[in-house]
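INFO batch 0412 | record 1 of 1 | parsing
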Amino acid sequence: MCAFDMCFLCDVCRPFSRIVESEARYVGKLALLDRFRREVQRAGALDKRQLSTLFANIASLHAFHEEHLLPQLVCEFVSYHRRECRRFAFVKYAESNTNAKKKKSAKIREPLACQ
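INFO prediction complete | emitting tokens
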């Protein structure tokens, strides 16, 4: 679901919102894996070679996605959403203004057409 539920652009921003939400879930799963790796290491269940084989770079992946990628995705999504809202609102205003002028000019011409 779109992070901006009340927005009239939900159909436009939904794909971007899903990417951000997917990345957030991925960061949560990486955090869980990192926590599990620390618990296994603390318990001494695996030696260093086995740990490095199973959990090769989980800590650095988690740090990168949590500290860099996810915040940048969120920032870009919010920026895109705001930009599209303004553009969409302007287009709707321009359309309504044009339609209002057409209706007004039709009302002015209508009596002339009848004469």
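INFO post-check: The longest helix spans residues 58-114.
INFO record closed
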